[in-house]
Amino acid sequence: MASRHRRRIAAFAVVAALVAAPAVVGCDAVDKALDCFQTAETIADSVTDLQQAVENASNDPTQTDESLSAIEKNLDKIGDKTDNTDVNKAVDDLSTAVDNVRTAVQNGDKTPDISPVTDAAGELTKVCKP
Question: Cα(121)–Cα(97) distance, rounded to whole angstroms?
Answer without folding.
Answer: 10
